[in-house]
Amino acid sequence: MTATKILTRNFERADSHTLAAYRETGGYAAWQKAETLEPAAITEEVKQSNLRGLGGAGFPTGTKWSFIPKHHAGPVYLVINADEGEPGTFKDRYLLERDPHALIEGMLIAARAIRSATGFVYIRGEYIEPWRRFSAAVKEAYDAGYLGRGFDVVVHRGAGAYICGEETGLISSLEGKKGWPKLKPPFPAIKGAFGAPTIVNNVETICCVPHILTRGAAWFAALGTKTQGGTRMYSVSGRVRRPGVYEASVAITLRALIDDLAGGVTGNGRLKAVVPGGSSAAILRADEIDVTMDVDGLRNAGTMAGSAGVIVMDETVSIPEALMVVARFYAHESCGQCTPCRESTGWIYKMVRRIVEGRGRKDDLDTILDVARRGAGTTICAFYDGAVGPYVSYIEKFRAEFEALIPR
Amino acid sequence: MTAPTVAFSEAQLAEVRRLQGLYPDGRAALLPALHLAQETFGHISLEVEEYVARLFDLTPAHVHEVVTFYTLFFREPKGRHVVAVCHNLSCHLAGAPEIVAHVRRRLGVDVGETTDDGRVTLQSVECLCACEHAPMMQVDDRYELDLTPEKVDRILEGLR
Ligand SMILES: Cc1cc2nc3c(=O)[nH]c(=O)nc-3n(C[C@H](O)[C@H](O)[C@H](O)COP(=O)(O)O)c2cc1C
Ligand code: SF4
Ligand code: FES
Fold this sequence. Notes:
Chain A is α/β, with parallel strands linked by helices. Chain A is built from 17 helices and 9 strands. In chain A, a hairpin with an 8-residue loop joins strand 7 and strand 8. The longest helix of chain A has 18 residues, at 339-356.
């Protein structure tokens, strides 16, 4: 299977971020069409398209929009998650830098569907160039009269904290607080930013929306599988010949993505393992890559599509060392609110490091598995489950490699 | 009451008020205002926290809690330049440990420290989401990509 360029169709143009270039390639025609549609009709079209959230959880987008209370009197907010931080993921950076008007147009349409007059775009603090590019596009859109007539966009910068990518953490952070996630329910669609009904969507998710409007839900649905429409942007890194962003159907296999699009495995040329959906996804062995990359395909394979950050490891890579790096990340980024998450992430990192440094003990692996699993599903947010995925899968699938490091 | 020794200019105060006006609750402008404070005062001392707290009608404790939560806010004076080398998985696979070791040797400081001449603060950080160009680092506002020791040397020499 090959690449299908929809979201990335203009990326080769040097001026793709400008309003002129965007208009030349049909930009803002979807918004013109949306203006003639009833909000419910827009939501229905998005439902029919089988678009599923591309930020991590894969929730059906149209369904999420329909959770906004019907006759709500006060404000409703649209919040765009541009806090891209999942290790191995870099697609939203490309969209913000190379097609910012697609996000603005998608926001206009989404805002009409949920009857929102204000959208916030939360961009991670380190993304300075993407923030400049996107802010310049927002200014162009105001000057051209797309924004400021019933819908305003506020660009907000984060300040360095992975957990602010989690939607309720993001909302806390947007409100000027530390980015502590909140227990759900209530879901943001009922009580979100500033206490109002709020839809949080990923950048890429919203960039799909104009295409659904112009070319139709059936066309979009047919690009993918029975349960997920469209293409998505895969971030491929690690030991491959051509690391980069590749757009293809959600029905592409992991094998085709690595071999055909990213040019195959480097290092010693032989694949050992792949993380298919950002560092929080369970790892796959080389013999497990004949899976499709859609949400359900990867779920059935015991892992997750997540953010579609694909990290490739050849046979020369040490899996225990890779887990040590991943465990250090989770230990550093836990927000500290829940005891199992705060304690286990720190403790497991130390254990894995000890093993890698040749100071492990015979029972360490079972202890890690036991501790990791016991906290799963008990915490306020999905961060901890996202850490358990790698802890358990790296050890279970490559146990002999860990054991070889433990002195007898 | 002691007079504050840190203060924004009139133009900056107007900017803070503009930022506050963008949100349904002005307190949401705290992060943007702290970014502005750090640009202005170099780092966010307790004194700056108190000053910003007054502007926002928040307790200094609240502002302190926020400042300490985020990695981009500095509570101690930092160097004129900040070099943040990514040490997460994709960069690790591409040789980040060697890059970190190389930068440490070249600067003569450990991770988390600032050179004696106040030129550079060195950090090692989690994924900056440019993994297709691993190993990489952030130098102030810029992403520096596809690093080699030679490229690192050239970049460090350019920092005055
Ligand atoms: C720990 C954690 C980190 C997350 N980080 C991100 C992120 O960086 N970007 C993102 O869009 N979603 C992230 N998510 C998912 C969001 O919580 C949320 O599901 C998503 O933004 C919804 O948008 P979507 O439905 O369009 O995917 C994260 C979730 C968790 C649990
Ligand atoms: S699971 Fe971890 S990151 Fe999420 S709220 Fe609890 S302590 Fe914070
Ligand atoms: S791992 Fe270094 S930029 Fe992602």
